[in-house]
Hints:
homodimer; alpha+beta; 4-stranded antiparallel beta sheet; 14 strands; 15 helices; 5-stranded mixed beta sheet
Amino acid sequence: MKNLSKVLEEVLRKVKPSNEECNELNAVAAEVMNRIKLSVKRRELDVNVILIGSAARNTWVAGDRDIDIFIGFDPSVPRNDLEYYGIEIGKEIAGDSYIIQYAEHPYVRAKIDDFVFDVVPYYKVDAASRSISAVDRTPFHQQFVTAHLNGREDEVRLLKQFFKGIGIYGAELKIKGFSGYLCELLIINYGSFLQLLNDATNWKSRKYISLLKEKTSIEFDNPLIVVDPVDPKRNVAAAVSTESFFNFIDSAREFLSKPCVEFFFPPQTEPVCAEDLREILSKRGTKIFAFSFKMPELVEDIAYPQLEKSVKSMCKALSRAGFQPFRSDIYYNSGLVVLLLELIVWHLPPLYRHIGPPVERREHAQQFKNKYLNDPSVFSGPYIQDSRYIAEIPRKYLSAEVFIKRELKNLKLSGAVYRSMKTGCEVLCNEDILKIDNREYRVFLANYFSRAQRRCK
Amino acid sequence: MKNLSKVLEEVLRKVKPSNEECNELNAVAAEVMNRIKLSVKRRELDVNVILIGSAARNTWVAGDRDIDIFIGFDPSVPRNDLEYYGIEIGKEIAGDSYIIQYAEHPYVRAKIDDFVFDVVPYYKVDAASRSISAVDRTPFHQQFVTAHLNGREDEVRLLKQFFKGIGIYGAELKIKGFSGYLCELLIINYGSFLQLLNDATNWKSRKYISLLKEKTSIEFDNPLIVVDPVDPKRNVAAAVSTESFFNFIDSAREFLSKPCVEFFFPPQTEPVCAEDLREILSKRGTKIFAFSFKMPELVEDIAYPQLEKSVKSMCKALSRAGFQPFRSDIYYNSGLVVLLLELIVWHLPPLYRHIGPPVERREHAQQFKNKYLNDPSVFSGPYIQDSRYIAEIPRKYLSAEVFIKRELKNLKLSGAVYRSMKTGCEVLCNEDILKIDNREYRVFLANYFSRAQRRCK
């Protein structure tokens, strides 16, 4: 397989940081570490300061600019103090250029010399299983990886870039993919990128991987289960969605049968233009709605599931009202949301089959009959079908667009989404969906309309 | 309740045969009985000849012209002989004016002096439970009714006419209603028409009625269960459909709250005219298809379930193809069938979501991808959703009409219906459904479009 090894060589040349890049990163990291240590000393705090994550483990991919520094507090320190000092120290080293990020607790993200530093306070617990906050586990992960990776850092880099290329790198809820730590564990388990890929071509749902000798007794209900070696109650792959899981399997098969660099570095999708969109829409013959609104105040990992739930509810409500959703998607970037809803039935005749009470329920039956027997708008009925009364009455909404606009508050949207949509939601339709003038959004549209599971021609 | 008793009196005046009518019927029946007995004697057959049914039990409704004469054979007589003699004797007394009817076995229906005689051969078994053919039970029914009715014939007449008026008299599969024998048992059980109606207002599904002291151990799965007192394994009300059952309950409630003669003698529905139909259709906004064909060769009770099954299959197939049936109905009279299908979605965009194999099934997955990755007609995909591949491909049928015409053989129609439709089926649409020029059919259409569960204004 000469071609395969050539491809991997070429990829490795791109993903392995150069000596200069390493030196630069190490120098900046060391300097920031020092500043934090001084800051800690000044405050007379009894804490650890450690470099953590891919920068520390040498598994970062060339071009990555994220560096994590953890500040370890004794578990006896109150949570408020931990948060307070974490942020104070972070701000101090950040100068002006920082933002507060929110995970389980807030921390500082600072921009220093082109690098992004996360300064995260944590509790130094005895064992990962005794973690107070999720980040407390991270130092144990680092110990484990450092002890077991045995020089296979480049394999991790290949894998990370592969996941990036096929769009499933990262455990965040917008991606639902593979985290850096998960990549490292997979390489430790399989020995190499290619051995993992070869095995993955035959994976079945609920694939179970454990680096521990004993099997855990916990049943995980995920497509991929990778037991955390430092905390066997935890599935490191819990974030991996069914789609990401199968996307990986499919991509592994495709790549091995036709190795090419494009898997790792896919060509950029061209944003859709008005002319293309017009042609696409006229071919598809569907009706496509874009609900565009702003939702800047929430953390992505909190907002994204709410957006998903809301789109699902909208589709369900449309179906119940007789319309037929075909596909939907979510654009969410820098606080701008566009919910895309494509329908194959969006307009209905005025006739609606209103299902009444069972005949057995005498009182309800009487009410129903009284109401509809004397209603001149009734088309047919009330009559009995099976065990119930039916009245054919005028349909409330003949158009999906009007239905969504007027029934917004009954669509079971999540609270934040509903409030954001109510504050100001633009509803665009068909060619007008390009009125949202945003390059990334137009790339998202192009992907929506192609979405082919193919990376090499 | 003066009004109620007045209504019943008026109805009784109409449904109770006059003395002249009784005398006429009895005279004709006696004469035909005699002719049959002579015919039997000439053939030296050892058989019983008995008058049976409502004519014999004096529970017939004025205007009824049906008389049943049964010829009882010893169970040792071979079935072929029984059928042969039954038909020969029937033909002999009928002269020219007869037809052969088919139930479990064939028999002669003869028209004599304005009366319709069914001459039915049966086996004289020891007990109803030992019946060889279904008709063998009938003489036992007659014995039971004669022994228990105790002069409540007029109550039976009221009940029969009530069922006629609300359209559920008769156990045939086109009606799925209450047979004459069932009416008699209900009156024997409840004592009177009004006591039955009062009780029926509170009936619940699986209503159980038995005239026997011991409860039967058999579980019947019908909305109404009336144990046959001469054969407790049998539910006399097995033919009563859920709709007929609830129609009765609903009608009982309505009648008792607003007694009126129209329940028994509803005004005739006016046939729909072109102008009305145009207005109705434009209001409903639906698409209505009439599939019209001839099916003269089958017995109604055999044809009707096949038509029902076929319409159900058509609706299911339409749904699967993305169209939305709203309601359907069957016109079936003298061999002419019209299947009515009303749709709220009958036209779809060219986009079709083709669900492919699970990603896990590697071989199928490969075939699917090979096929659709290189198909220029594909709109989007193949992509992965959940655990499967999806390809958005051109829809085969954009129109429900074309779908049904072209897919006729795949619609899982019953054999006889399929053959009849293939031989010559006219497909009419919207206003053209009135091209079938037939008064009864136009009455059927008028009922289809009104169907209000209300009999008195």
